[in-house]
């Protein structure tokens, strides 16, 4: 099916500004109850201790890039903002929480919950679709501690998979190359309904071109694609089934009364043609009937699945006969899809066959006919196809893309870094799990050639790094790892996407298309060796300013003695 | 938090009978548009060819058990029935489909779509929660070919992940053993919001005891659990923060005016007690403040996360001091949670400490205090813990359970097996991908000891296998693999769950609890060597009757010659 790019369903309210209403999350199941029970037991304990309104700052970040790579795409932000913009407990939800907590919990807590919203919460975040790195906050969420904890679980849920699948998509795009069409075909294998819908949205964001998922097309305006399955082919028994055989020519000037005969004539011409003779014998007639029926339904969009019986002996000759008959009537077939077998070999053989047809019958561009491949594709198989040589123009990728089979989870965490203006550090015997305390600012420093060199975190009130100034970047936990950087450009990473009601402007939420463009542009801006599939060069380890470094270690020593008195 | 088993939200309409209304899918995003575009292009082509009402039979099945195991739990059926019971296109949906198909598609098709529902579709299925095996249909869907194809994608989406995660849950239960409490903690890492909600539902079905997911508790009546996080602990700075220090005794007979002092007294007693002296020095005071605050909020449900600073030197002594103070007032603490470190070692050390407290201070059952463990647990780590020896009573399992990290997708397929009473076979060079044609009946044959021996498929009109009768079971594609079976019990597997409007009774949809009971009972009924984690004995390869065997091979030969004429 030709690409259909329809305006997204919610076009009217997607381009928000600070005065418009932000709609709720795409999935209506995303409510304040889509959370862990402990957020509510903690809320009660904070409330009971009179601590619920203490001002807390949490960082949301991940510790390690997925898929053995050196980058991650940040995605899911819009859904988080949609949630908090509409964060309010219904009476039914409060009744359920009451029934879930001990009877001893006081009524006042439920009165408090009834009034909870996110008007006093602030969300700073890296723009959605950005390239991101471990340890640097993707989001900083500030507000009354009980409320901020209530959004922890849904935020992590909305960010973790979105970022994982957007990254997976970008990685598949990287291996496939820019010129190939990439189609997301994973709905049937996704982890639940919005595993499917999220996969479509975030694969598109990460660089895919289209999806098979109709609902995702409707919700987000993603181009949707699809033709037919093996069942369609095997549902036909013979050519006798085709009752209505006429087809008008494309320009409406004439009508072919018996398109079936026209196809049969072409099939015979192909079979006995000088260059092809002997390549195939009898083709499968139910397949031929299916192809003809599909062409009669979609003469402008004829794309056939050719591997139900035998690709080279049946599928390709049948396809070519139909395509040539269509060509007689002014229609141009789109191509074929291969869904099994040796895709490198079959695509090359198919290309040869198409070129032979072009030569033999003088049909311009027949040799360039589109070849789509599917069947359990992933980064490895795409890479293997590239190495073997192939003639595929479009890849349909399902299971491995949408379930992120190579690594099914991203480990984003949400850590308290400050309360009541007091910095907090979470220690761990595993240094990689020690949190970086303090409310921070984060910057990306760019070098002469336009590539990002390093991300640096500073205390909130430190002066920002300046262009052309020499800056010491320190590894937060490794004393000897440090480097001077003279940035040619400095980009502040965290922007305010939700100021609550307390003050002014916030970043607009861009359209999905704009986010996708940002993502593609950011990926192109990276130094290529960070991006390669095998053994990529690590992006300069995330760093902190000298001042923040000293403060972290002061705090650490302050907390650490607990265990050392023994 | 103590287990809270609340009635499911939809209790009123969950116990359906043939006269009650079946509600729509749990996730309102599951609509007829949650499908691949090719289902609609095929529907148009069928309609255009006048073929859309031809009676088709499709089998839904998988080809291989997941996780290297020898069984699979079938789940997701109820959601499928909810979808088809409410399957109807809205005007907006039809407008979207129209905008997605070529302009040349005729108006009559949209009139047809407007009238489409599933009243003429029949669904036969294995009851939800059943143990299932490769190649035997989990579902047989019959009806007008265009309509049945429209439900293919949503059915696969609803079955694939549900069955995968239910199986994963059952496998975790098998390794953990019956006596342990298993808690699903995966919402934050799940693949999207209903990745999380589905995980909670189907983990419970597969044998977990509870979830942290509040919304899943509300929707399905699953017990929900949770206490507090590291952030709660580190949000406290010192004991001075605790303003309201009084706590009434459990029986209401007295009030302790300074619970903080009571705890401090106990901490000192523990520290200098004969058996403990020297094990710890100063404990972390912010941790102690957090524990006391939590205990004041939940004196009946005190369960503390003890690894924020140092488990044995701070968390456990702090916990014990609070638990002993609670004990003085008649409350019984629930226990502790470990979320990092060497869980085998720490749980054993913790148990020793608890027993010492019991002995030293004469507090009955203190040694049996609950120990919950979490932190990236999976089948392997549970198995390793068992081998090392541990003292954990409850496991909280998240990422690896809900994302099915070990194998993130189940490959259920939906294959045409008959159209217009003509059997259809899908060939493939890979024999494991050849479909088993014909509308079939499926039986499970049980042996003397009550174990299932083999599943057998027969043609629809063959007489069913009889108890005590000798039956030849043949491998469908391997001539030499066959066996005689004399069943002691014969169970027909596929039951009618959706008769459409055409005729009578259908199976009632059981409650989630009933499905869970069936699942646990079926798992217990399996021969243990099929169930073990490493190198399980394969369940007798799925078989067909002698008659069906002959027919398959007749059909195969009939279709196969296509490629042999060359």
UniProtKB/TrEMBL annotation, chains A, B:
The Enzyme Commission number assigned here is 6.3.4.21
The GO annotation for biological process reads: NAD+ biosynthetic process via the salvage pathway
Return the protein name: Nicotinate phosphoribosyltransferase
GO cellular-component terms in the record? cytosol
What chemistry does it catalyse, as a reaction equation? 5-phospho-alpha-D-ribose 1-diphosphate + nicotinate + ATP + H2O = nicotinate beta-D-ribonucleotide + ADP + phosphate + diphosphate
The Swiss-Prot or TrEMBL record lists the needed cofactor(s) as:
Mn(2+); Mg(2+)
Q: Where is this region: Disordered?
A: 1-25
| Residue stretches making up the Nicotinate/nicotinamide phosphoribosyltransferase domain | 183-433
Question: What keywords is this UniProt entry annotated with?
Answer: Glycosyltransferase, Ligase, Magnesium, Manganese, Metal-binding, Phosphoprotein, Pyridine nucleotide biosynthesis, Transferase
Give the organism the record lists. Rhododendron griersonianum
- What positions does the domain Nicotinate phosphoribosyltransferase C-terminal occupy? 439-551
InterPro entries documented for this protein? Aldolase_TIM, N/Namide_PRibTrfase, NAPRTase_C, NAPRTase_N, Nic_PRibTrfase-Fam, Nic_PRibTrfase_pncB, Nicotinate_pribotase-like_C
What's its job?
Catalyzes the first step in the biosynthesis of NAD from nicotinic acid, the ATP-dependent synthesis of beta-nicotinate D-ribonucleotide from nicotinate and 5-phospho-D-ribose 1-phosphate. Helps prevent cellular oxidative stress via its role in NAD biosynthesis.
UniProt KW Phosphoprotein keyword: yes
């Amino acid at each position: 099916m030709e690409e259909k790019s329809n305006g997204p369903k919610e076009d009217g309210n997607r381009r928000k500004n600070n005065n418009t209403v932000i709609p709720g999350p795409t999935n209506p199941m995303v409510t304040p109850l889509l959370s862990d029970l402990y957020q509510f037991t903690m809320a009660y304990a904070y409330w009971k201790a009179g601590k619920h309104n203490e001002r807390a700052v949490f960082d949301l970040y991940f510790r390690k890039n997925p898929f053995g790579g050196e980058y991650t795409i940040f995605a899911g932000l819009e859904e988080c903002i949609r949630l908090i913009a509409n964060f309010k407990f219904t009476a039914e939800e409060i009744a359920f929480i009451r029934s879930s907590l001990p009877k001893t919990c006081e009524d006042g807590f439920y009165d408090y919950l009834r009034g909870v919203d996110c008007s006093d919460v602030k969300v700073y975040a890296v723009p959605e679709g950005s390239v991101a790195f471990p340890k640097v906050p993707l989001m900083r969420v500030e507000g009354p501690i009980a409320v901020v904890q209530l959004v922890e679980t849904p935020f992590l849920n909305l960010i973790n998979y979105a970022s994982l699948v957007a990254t997976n998509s970008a990685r598949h795009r990287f291996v496939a190359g820019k010129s190939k069409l990439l189609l997301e075909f994973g709905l049937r294998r996704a982890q639940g309904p919005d595993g499917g819908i999220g996969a479509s949205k975030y694969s598109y964001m990460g660089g895919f071109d289209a999806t098979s998922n109709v609902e995702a097309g409707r919700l987000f305006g993603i181009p949707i694609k699809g033709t037919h399955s093996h069942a369609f082919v095997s549902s036909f028994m013979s050519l006798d089934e085709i009752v209505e055989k006429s087809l008008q020519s494309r320009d409406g000037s004439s009508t072919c009364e018996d398109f079936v005969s026209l196809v049969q004539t072409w099939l015979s011409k192909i079979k006995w043609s000088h260059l092809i003779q002997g390549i195939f014998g009898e083709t499968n007639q139910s397949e031929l009937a299916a192809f003809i029926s599909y062409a009669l339904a979609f003469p402008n969009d004829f794309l056939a699945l050719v591997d139900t019986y035998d690709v080279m002996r049946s599928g390709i000759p049948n396809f070519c006969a139909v395509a040539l008959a269509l060509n007689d009537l002014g229609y141009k077939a789109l191509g074929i899809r291969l869904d099994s077998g040796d895709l490198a070999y079959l695509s090359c053989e198919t290309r040869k066959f198409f070129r032979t047809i072009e030569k033999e019958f003088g049909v311009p561009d027949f040799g360039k006919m589109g070849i789509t491949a599917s069947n359990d594709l992933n980064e490895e198989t795409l890479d293997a196809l590239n190495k073997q040589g192939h003639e595929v123009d479009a890849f349909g990728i399902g299971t491995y893309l949408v379930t992120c089979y190579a690594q099914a989870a991203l480990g984003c965490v949400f850590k308290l870094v400050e309360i009541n203006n007091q910095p907090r550090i979470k220690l761990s015997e595993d240094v990689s799990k020690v949190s970086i305390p303090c409310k921070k600012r984060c910057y990306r420093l760019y070098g002469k050639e336009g590539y990002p060199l390093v991300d640096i975190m500073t205390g909130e009130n430190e002066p920002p790094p300046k262009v052309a100034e020499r800056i010491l970047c320190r590894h937060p936990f490794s004393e000897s790892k440090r480097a001077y950087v003279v940035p040619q450009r400095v980009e502040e990473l965290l922007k305010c996407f939700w100021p609550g009601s307390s003050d002014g402007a916030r970043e607009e939420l861009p359209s999905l298309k704009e986010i996708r463009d940002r993502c593609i542009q950011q990926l192109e801006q990276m130094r290529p060796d960070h991006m390669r599939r095998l053994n990529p060069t690590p992006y300069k380890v995330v760093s902190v300013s000298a001042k923040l470094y000293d403060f972290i270690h002061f705090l650490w020593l302050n907390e650490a003695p607990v265990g050392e008195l023994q």
